[in-house]
Amino acid sequence: MIETITRLETLRARIRDWRRQGLTVGFVPTMGNLHAGHYSLIELARQHADRVVASVFVNPTQFGPNEDFSRYPRTPEADARGLQEAGCDVLWLPDVATMYPFGLQAAASVHVPGVSAVLEGAARPGHFDGVCTVVTRLFNQVQPDLAVFGRKDYQQLAVIRQLVADLQIPVQILAGEIVRDADGLALSSRNQYLSPEERALAPALHRTLQAMRDSALQGLPRARIEAEADAALRAAGFQPDYAVIRRPDFSEPADGERGARVALIAARLGQTRLIDNLEFDLPA
Ligand code: PAF
Description:
Elements: E1 3-5, H1 8-20, E2 25-30, H2 36-48, E3 51-56, H3 76-86, E4 90-92, H4 96-99, H5 120-123, H6 127-142, E5 146-150, H7 154-166, E6 172-176, H8 196-201, H9 204-217, H10 222-235, E7 239-246, E8 259-269, E9 272-282
Parallel strand pairs: 1-4, 2-3, 2-5, 3-4, 5-6
Antiparallel strand pairs: 7-8, 8-9
Helix pairs in contact: 6-7, 9-10
Bound molecules: pantoate (PAF).
Pantoate binds next to strand 2 and helix 6.
């Protein structure tokens, strides 16, 4: 039976207990409204740790003033059931006062420069500061041996790796694969905002990423690939924030250069902002 913990002292006592028994702890931070993508992260944590903690906390500091914090879907009972079935041991369910004991205005904040500034960071000012601030707190609360983040939030994963390396936080970061519906749409809690008509259009996101990869493999210039992706998304009914090909460190590759690449898209469909990415290699 999964144990739901809402008090920090209880969480610390449970983890102390496990440590005394010599057990390792895996951690999966989430904002709830869990789906098969999240559960695959729990399974990955299970494979690498003796005990698994998942947190559910809709973090106010990572939402912009005009974003979807208040309407972000909250489904605590279904989440607890799903986590139990996925083999999670503890659901860590802090409230805002537990997470930010000095209040949101007086809270210490964590900023990771560089990798936080581009793409999602440029489109959503302050977003990664909110993510790094809450993830640092969560790491201090849970003190896990390893933590799992999904590859769907490609840039978030890179920011977290930089955070952990720079602040020398003793946690191993594992990356979970993107889980997609049969038509290619990456699973996301935000998919449920889509109307049936928008849901039917949404797989164009993944198809555009595949077309970007295929054009890159054919050797087309990056500027042309990105312009064609932007046009394809607009023709399919999206308003793109960006559709780009980058090196894994987000720097801009030169045409003709070989190596690892990632195609990244953020685009709005109606009121819903979706992100997705596709990693590939341009072999020598
Ligand atoms: O990826 C998410 O769900 C959130 O950004 C995270 C890592 C749980 C921090 O609130």
